[in-house]
Specification:
This protein has ten helices and 13 strands. The chain is of the alpha+beta class and 318 residues long.
Amino acid sequence: MFGWLKNYSLPSALKANGVLGMNARNYKIIAPQNDRRLYPLVDDKVKTKVLAGKAGINTPRLIGVIEYQHQVKDFPDVIKNAPQFVIKPAHGSGGKGVLVVNRWEEDRFFTASGKVLSFREVFGHISNTLSGLFSLGGQYDVALIEETVNFSDLFKNFSYQGVPDVRIIVYKGYPAMAMMRLATAESGGRANLHQGAVGVGLDIRSGKTLRAVMHNRPVSVHPDTGADLSKLVVPFWREHLLIGAKAYEMTGLGYLGADIVLDRDRGPMMLELNARPGLAIQIANGSGLATVVKKIEKTYPVGLTPEERVGYILNAVS
């Protein structure tokens, strides 16, 4: 199933295997399916969170928002009742600027990656966030402070320090392809494939492992924990798919990526949405997204509710 990876630089080989390239994604899928006026609904995490609440989609609780530089000094008051929290830019992408604090005491903050930061360093991080250091296009930004996800113990051997997440690509309301991203020591505890996380392709009907990659190369075990990646199964799979399906009506975007985590107490929660999701998911799955999109276009029914679309996916014959 990974044969086409050996020739991934040959356009003919990719096209023959139904692999969706960047240009085709941008001009044949994103352009006609995603009205640019809708981008702010997913590019701005505050707006996304408000919409998710209205759509009945579970998300991490918002602790506070810091909008202006003069408010940075109020940060201690914002977190005084929060033993754990995450700081993230409202317009960030690719995990940039996300700071996960597992605990703090007096003037020391202990991050998920094992670093110990001072108040001054955390203040500096927030200030950099507001100035746009981590945002799309370098625009002035807002710092969100959210509750930390208490990820399920079911994945404790599959991820190193950081919270693993599921990325689901949704096309016209149908979950089309999925993978789980597992943090590693190299990725600094972040579930980001470009930073060295492991990508595990998931069967869209069952949430079970198809195959796994790290730096675009097949792997069978987690590099830090030694866990057998073929044993990974995502529980509450229907609920994961339903979040992705609901995001279609919630945003109006015909092509999107939904990032979902499994909280120990609250179940599947949507972290964020993306109007321009990357294509590495195809490598993790060992199959092309263009083939799936074509199948949805030609054979999948229209006019169904999110619940009905998920039911159709779960009962579809491959």
